[in-house]
Amino acid sequence: MSIKGQNTTTTYIEWNDFISLITRLEKDENYKFCLLVSIGVFTGLRISDLLTLTYSDLLNNETFTLREMKTKKQRSIKVNKDLKDIVSRIVSKSNITNLNQLIFINKYGTKSIDKSYVNVKLKELVKKYRIKLDGNVSTHTFRKTLGRRVMEVNNYSNESLVLLMELFGHSSMSITKRYLGIREQEIHNVYDSLTF
Which residues are CB-contacts of 44 (< 8 A; sequence separation ≥ 6)? Predict the structure, then answer.
């Protein structure tokens, strides 16, 4: 439940801030969250699917397949070279020997970390590293950051919107636009276009 007047919209992280964040997390040896943010943004997976990943999913193949928990759909994910490099470095630095273990395992080593813990920790990290956001941070921030980057790189084309719609599993482009906050931005641009 939100407090009256509180901004509850989850937003994205600007790409340069995302790069800065994962660089600083790795430097500060916060490997778990460096990987969580990196993998979340580079794959666009929901948190429920991220928490099921093992190191071998990302390191042993160019792609991996999973069944999404929310939609039950089979999805193939390509592992970006930069992401593979990050995971390899952190596996080496962390002395991980069992590549089949969960990446995001809790401190007791019994199961994956909890989504609510991730959301609290993300808020702390954004504050600690002074990442400026136009909204709130949550696990949806990963997917929205990926979406915004794809849109920016492709000059906000309809083709990129169609690809993101499919990647996110949305039933229409209008849902994807609303999810990424693009529709609201377009409406605001209408007001800005009214000049003398």
Answer: 142, 143, 146, 147, 167, 168
What pTM does this model have?
Answer: 0.88
pLDDT score recorded for residue 34: 98
Residues in Cβ contact with 74 at an 8 Å cutoff, skipping those fewer than 6 apart: 65, 66, 67, 68
Runs of H (alpha helix) within the chain: 15-27, 31-43, 47-50, 55-59, 81-94, 115-128, 140-153, 158-168, 173-180, 182-192
Round to whole Å and give the CA distance between 168 and 173.
11
Instruction: Tell me which architecture the domain covering 15-153 has in CATH.
Output: Orthogonal Bundle (1.10)
Q: How far apart are CA 66 and CA 74, in angstroms?
A: 6
Measured between alpha carbons, how far is 16 from 70 in angstroms, rounded to an integer?
30
Domain chopping of the chain, boundaries = 15-153
